[in-house]
Design a protein that fits this description.
13% strand; 2 domains; three-stranded antiparallel beta sheet; Rossmann fold; alpha/beta
Length: 468
């Protein structure tokens, strides 16, 4: 099978590199706001498990289209000789600095690449674009045009009318927001434009769909493992005989929070790598002991459940948790709903005695002090038995995953992690989730509950993808 190569061409600063990053699913592609940032053609292969499915070529922008077309017209006697004229132009001007960019973008095309012509739908169509479109038509290579609305879609209709006279296929394609299904649609379209590539592109679509399913599956397993780990996490410290316990309590409270924060971030990095994101910036409200407003009660409800939902699931969780949870589930609509958010809101008080911090800490996990045979005491904090705690962990993790799945590799904005995602979960699902969370805390049931939770997230990912 012949492996497809696509040269992404167009004027400077019209989103060519963004198209390449999106279709190659590669966030290493350089994307800059200044025009002309791409000076040399660079290949970006789309690989899955070491197999190259197709290659994208990021090219410099067209600078002197009219001069190139004038030369071509002087060196082509008829339509049949036009592709040869384009090759002759590249050979004749390979060392000419005036046509450096034009030769760089035409070289992969005359070598057999298909053409993806990119324009900006937020600027007007003009007759001066016709020279470059005519050059591309002279190459004789299969081609399609993408209208990339960088700022708005004000002139999309104009572009559709103009491009339709030069390209068999014209599509509106926002490189920043095109979902995975729309990306695969382009591969299918190109398979229809070049029969030699149809088999390769059909396989590419099949492999990429399988890859997406694998990504969802691995992400769900990672998130389920993280929640199970967090629900069993505790910290302990020995206190020698005669030394005060209070400072150790404050220390354990802080250590518990820092470790949870580190483990959540590790899970996020792992999920990002599953979806092939390696350079993400984040804008989030996170577990942070240095700022009391970052994880308050309102944000706790944002990621987890509100009072009504907690009251609804309390019975489901209580049936499995029993009476040894360290907290009373009948108080779920009162103090227990604050949880980790209230805990961190009071964290700054820990340094001056720890009374407020420990009072809030009791709402998420239990502090235990017991004597040990060798003398002294063993102080432990955790694991959490707060019924809202796992919902907060799940809500934050699902929001992170959803943001990854709904963005493209061309999007270099900060990843926003500051909105709710569990609001659309049904009451029946919430009760089932509460039962799974309770089972995660029981060794004999934990493995089955972890798998059930992962399966639920996987089904949810598939539904969201289908709706997109």
């Amino acid at each position: 099978m012949s492996l497809p190569v696509f040269a992404v061409v167009g004027r400077p600063n019209k989103g060519k590199s963004s198209i390449v990053a999106t279709l190659a699913r590669d966030d290493s592609v350089g994307i800059e706001a200044r025009a002309g940032s791409t000076r040399e053609a660079r290949e970006f292969p789309m690989r899955v498990d070491g197999e190259t499915l197709y290659t994208l070529v990021d090219t410099p922008g067209i600078q002197r289209a009219r001069a190139v077309l004038e030369w071509l017209r002087a060196h082509a006697a008829d339509a049949a000789s036009r592709p040869r004229a384009v090759r002759d132009f590249v050979d004749a001007h390979r060392d000419d600095p005036r046509f450096h960019d034009e030769c760089a973008l035409l070289r992969p095309v005359v070598a057999g690449a298909g053409i993806i012509y990119v324009v900006d739908g937020s600027v007007p169509f003009g007759a001066d674009y016709e020279a470059e479109m005519e050059i591309l038509r002279w190459t004789g290579r299969p081609s399609l045009a993408l209208i990339n609305p960088i700022d708005n879609e004000d002139y999309v209709a104009e572009w559709q009318a103009g491009l339709g006279q030069y390209f068999q296929t014209v599509r509106l394609f926002n490189a920043q927001r095109a979902e995975a299904a729309k990306q695969l649609e382009l591969l299918v379209l190109f398979g229809h434009l070049d029969e030699q590539w149809r088999q390769s592109l059909d396989r590419a679509v099949e492999v990429l769909r399988g890859e997406r399913e694998r990504e969802h599956r691995e992400a769900a397993a990672l998130i389920a493992e993280w929640i199970a780990e967090a629900l069993e996490f505790q910290v302990s410290q020995r206190v020698p005989e005669g030394l005060p316990v209070q400072p150790v309590q404050d220390l354990l409270f802080s250590r518990y929070q820092r470790e949870l924060q580190a483990r959540e971030r590790r899970c996020r990095r792992q999920v990002e790598e599953v979806y092939h994101y390696h350079r993400l910036q984040r804008s989030e409200l996170d577990i942070d002991l240095e700022a009391s407003e970052l994880f308050n009660v309102e944000q706790w409800y944002l990621w987890g459940l509100d009072r009504r939902a907690l009251a609804l699931v309390a019975a489901s969780a209580g049936a499995l948790l029993g009476g040894g949870t360290g907290m009373a589930l009948d108080g779920v609509t009162a103090g227990l709903t604050g949880g980790l958010g209230t805990l961190v809101s009071g964290a700054l008080g820990a340094a001056s005695g720890g009374v407020a911090a420990l009072r809030y800490a009791d709402e998420i996990a239990q502090l235990r002090v017991k004597g040990i045979p060798s003398g002294g005491k063993l102080v432990s904090y955790g694991p959490s038995r707060n019924p809202n705690f796992p919902f907060v962990l799940l809500g934050r993790a699902l929001l992170h995953q959803h943001r990854l799945c709904s963005r493209t590799h061309a999007d270099r904005s900060a990843l926003q992690l500051d909105s709710a995602l569990l609001a659309d979960v049904s009451d029946a699902e919430r009760r089932q989730l509460a039962r799974w969370f309770a089972s995660l805390r029981q060794p004999r049931r934990a493995a089955a509950a972890r798998q059930a939770l992962a399966d639920w997230m996987l089904a949810r990912s598939g539904t969201a993808q289908a709706e997109a």
